[in-house]
Amino acid sequence: MSLKSANETRYWLSLIRDSISCSRIKLQVLSLLTEVDEISNMVAASIITLKKGK
Which stretches of the chain drop beneath a pLDDT of 50? Predict the structure, then answer.
């Protein structure tokens, strides 16, 4: 569920990034996209670790 939410957040932030012309806001969105990618990677790694333990 968390990974799905992170992917959905990435989708919406990407849409915002692509539709905004203000460079200041675009930089903020890019920063958020980076954070979402980091969170997604951590959640995915946790899922993989949990599945290996079964």
Answer: none
